[in-house]
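Weekly puzzle thread! Below is a chain. First person to post its structure in token form gets bragging rights.
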Amino acid sequence: MKTILGKSTPVCLIAGLLLILPQSLRAASLTLAANGQGMATIHAPRAVMAADQDTAGFKARELDAETDRRRLRESVKDLARYLGEMSGARVEVVTAPAGETAAPGAVRILVGDFAAARFGAPAKPFPYQQGFRVVVDAKGGWLGLIGESDLATSYAIYEVLDRLGCRWYMPGDHGEFIPRMPTIALDEMDFSSHPATIYRGIWYADDDYRRRNRYGGMALTAGHALELTGSYLTEEDKQKHPEWIASVGGKPMPTRLKWSNRELADSIADKIIARHASDPRPSYSLGPDDGAVFDDSAEDRALDANDFDTTFQTTSLTDRLMVLCNRITARVAAKDPDVLLGVLAYVQYTRPPLREKPNPNLVPQIAPITYSRAHPMNDDRVPGNRELRYIVEGWGKSARMTSYYFYGWFLAEPVAPNPMIRKWSHDVPYVLDKGNCKFWQPETTSNFETSMHAIYLGNRLSWDPSLKPEGIIAELNEKFYGGSASEMGAYWDFIDRVWVETDEYSGGAWGYLRRWTPENLHKARGLMNAALASARTPAERYRIGLADDSLSLFEAFMRLRYDLAEGRLGDLDQRAAAWMKRVVNLGETYKDCYAFTRVPWDKRTYAGGNFASFYLATYDDAARIARGFEVLTPAPLRRWRYLLDEKKKGEAAGYAAPELDDSGWRVTDVAAETWSTLGHHDYFGSVWYRAQFTLPAAPGASPDKRTFLWLSSTDGSAKVFVNGKHVPYTFKTPEGKAGTDEQADGFCKPFSFDITAALNPSGQNHVAVLCTRSAVAFNELGTGGLIGPVMVYRDR
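Winning reply:
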């Protein structure tokens, strides 16, 4: 049976229609292979198929051109390869032009200039030469694949393969789906089109995956560059012009610039103009350096609009930044009107401007790092979602076009399975429409084991927003998991619903005990086991095995979290070390799939790095305590009464006193609930915690044995009072000397306070902890104060 394919039409449907349609109504078709025998020859220009050029000394435009030529060459090879794999036929690539005559039934596939010479240019040009055309001339036996550029001609090739049902869901051979069809034919057509966006990209994947999924275009440069020494200003420039340096608290801050200074703007613009004259590029970045501390001088503050950023609880700095960026952009555009300047919309300058309309050549790249990463932005339960929609629509209206830098993984904790199906099904079309997005540039990691659905969904929609998200996901599950599609679809849908339906909005893993309850983990494991049992083919077993390894890794992660919360401390350090080794091994096993945050050229894993930064110190310290000391609170102190202290009056008001009546204070479980859970997602300030504990009798205990209060993890500072007495924090300096402070201060680090002198050794004891979270040290969404269990231990 012949298979004739039109755009996005299922193979089985077309085949069925052909059986019932009369011959006069059937579209003419071009047969590329029949009964496993090849009918087609690919004709590609010799220059396209040439070996790699030595690019040493190439300037940007030359390098881009060579990169796109190589891409087209590999695309031609893919066309021959996959037509052959689908049909079993051999498809030859030749570099000679096709003659006007050919053997009966022969098909000549013309690529690039060969096709343009016969059929003409694409009918729908697009910025940066991305328009393409596919011509199927059944009568003449021609297939023309034409682009405004080598890149666009590559798009035309994958348009054909896409119509034939080829899919590439993750990097590596295990990520592809290639249908088998001994007879391949294409409907007669003359189809011109282009991508919906100027650029589509992700951070980590191999060239094959990017090319086959038609990533690319003109990438907007908008990262942290503006204030980095050597980017536009040298150290000599900064020393020569101290008036360009930001002032914070009345003191110079050399890592920041004074955005209000007009001469500074002119100097940066002139540097860009000179750089462009020497080595032209399509865009340059005006994104400020990372961080959240900025000039607080009267001159810079005078440029701010009356707008408030609730996520930082401070004035929005967007209008101030737009003054600087507009001055630079206007000067650059006057000299080079085709150059785009990219700028991050980030931290305190995420919100759209109220007063300053961006120059048409200035493209904001929205990076909403302080907004929800798990829930779709139309969910108004989520703190900040109304603001986030205001941000998207505000930039969409004020800027000629925008770039979106969404987060394709859950920051600070990247190992939990997280397909983001509901979130990206809503958010990607929303930003493309309301946000006027022309550059789809999400931040991702090599995490196809957790977030393949979102990564693939984002690319398909940013190429063609008319596609239905539910159709994309259904097809992914069907083609990727084959006979196990129903079981794996149920698994991923459940995982996605847990993320979206749980009213937990903090970042990282500090709300995981609410989201990933034992019941939810048990249900996920049951669904995964059903999928494993349903697998029949090697491909199904491999792909489900990848997801199973991901879930198993996360189950081990959660066992560590639960054991810490419940006081099972003895081997946490050994298990944590084994976990870190395991994620590295999984990264090695699946490196070709760009999974487990491992990239092929780096043996480290991002997941392991985050684990070491945020969780490992607590596990190591917990095991140290369990092995070397007597733990006096076998059930950790998790339930605390708490009260906000916005005006910082609590210490003077006696909030640390044991006799204080705190019965009106609310109660929280510090191992499972974050400040976001408690309704204080964007709160920066102080919170008091109060609890009680009773020391067990210790017959014959030596009076010189010390007793300690252990805080397993905090976000911000912690000042401890026991029985009303302030207990200073003692520590050792890096040089090994003893140090003392009135409070401990840090993020995700354990602290021990020697409370011996303040204890009631034979009765009930009262502990109060004053915790303060600062926007200057903004660590995570919605966290703050105590973010883990508290215990008491003493010398053996």
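Puzzle host: Confirmed. Bonus trivia for everyone else. The CA atoms of residues 440 and 645 lie 42 Å apart.
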